[in-house]
Amino acid sequence: QVQLVESGGGLVQPGESLRLSCAASGAISSINAMGWYRQTPGKQREYVASISSGGLRNYADSVPGRFTISRDNAKTTIHLLINSLKADDTAVYYCAAGPLRTVRDRIDYWGQGTQVTVSA
Fold first, then answer.
1. Tens of pLDDT along the chain (120 residues)?
2. DSSP letter string over 73-87?
3. Among 3, 34, 38, 101, whose Cα sits 20 to 30 Å from the Cα of 27?
């Protein structure tokens, strides 16, 4: 089993930046890619980005260049930097992990989610 714990969410003003983090523990060797999804009330969970153990980054077509995913050298923690935050970025952001090179098609583990609210 793998446990994923997100942090870094909160209330921010439009135009600010925010960095989300997700720390993995447990059977780390069973996962390759880690990444992020987000969800707003009444909508399906939406893929945002992922990064493989080899550092390959993948972003959803709908994600603007304001989003940057990264992974620490130990490969147990990933980050999502969101610049120039907009109200539309308001969502619960979920960390995901799986055995493939992205988390687009297969997710074996989910985090509990962290709320990001962008409001003046």
1. 999 999 999 999 999 999 999 999 999 999 999 999 999 999 999 999 999 999 999 999 988 899 999 999 787 999 999 999 999 999 999 999 999 999 998 999 999 999 999 999
2. TTSSEEEEEE-S--G
3. 38
Coil/strand/helix, residue 89: helix
Residue closest to 59 by CA, chosen among 17, 104, 110 = 104
Between CA 34 and CA 28 the distance in angstroms is 11
Residues contacting residue 74 through CB under 8 Å, at least 6 positions apart: none
Contact 51, 34 (CB under 8 A): yes
Residue with tokens 């620490």: 72
- Alpha-carbon distance of 17 to 12, in angstroms, equals 8
